[in-house]
Amino acid sequence: MNQLLYDRSDLRRRGIKISNSTLLRLEALGRFPRRVRIGAHSVAWLANEIDEYVGLLGAARGANR
Fold this sequence. Notes:
alpha+beta; 3 strands; 3 helices
């Protein structure tokens, strides 16, 4: 099964403009999808997990109104 991956530029295009240190902190707390190491100095995120995360943010926003 092929998984689509998002890199940092893909996150930024989707409006996720968070510093790397903040992303690491949120990942450690379980509040952001964990990264996948794709090389010695490269990471990415599973696209479906990022899309789900953004959807949950939108749903939470709607519930708070």
